Amino acid sequence: MPEQNPPVEVASNEGLGLAPERAGQPRMMIIIDGAQEDETGHWYSPAAVREMLAAERDLQRRVSPQCWGPGQFVVVATFRYCLGRQTYIVQECADWLTLHWPVIEQPVRNLIQRELEAAFVKDDAIRAAAGPGTGYKPLGWDCDRREWERVRSLWANVEVTG
Prior knowledge:
Blueprint: E1 18-19, E2 43-44, H1 46-61, H2 73-82, H3 89-100, H4 106-130, H5 142-152
Helix pairs in contact: 3-5
């Protein structure tokens, strides 16, 4: 059986959820005011990372839908702003919609479904006529379309009403 080198601890990480430092492995860095003077940082254990991510998701879920305005106006406005964009915002919107879909009001979900399905019809027609890589597409670039497909999967087996 090959001999394994145990992790070398440089400082006590007890109670912090930090894994011992290991040579050659990436560390989570904390950079303050854009300055990084040295290679300091911590290796977080997989359990600690899972806990941090779960806490972030829990915080995002606790954002009150009442903050989204009457008729969840902010949800509709954000969706309409993002649809057709060709930037990072498409993925951010898809992530947000996926996370909050269960608490978005049904009329707003119906509106998003109708408008996104209509955009898919237009996008399919333009892609078929113009060919790949040419001109404007209602769903944006291929990477953007994949994000909208992820949103579309939220209602894959649900009939759009209204």
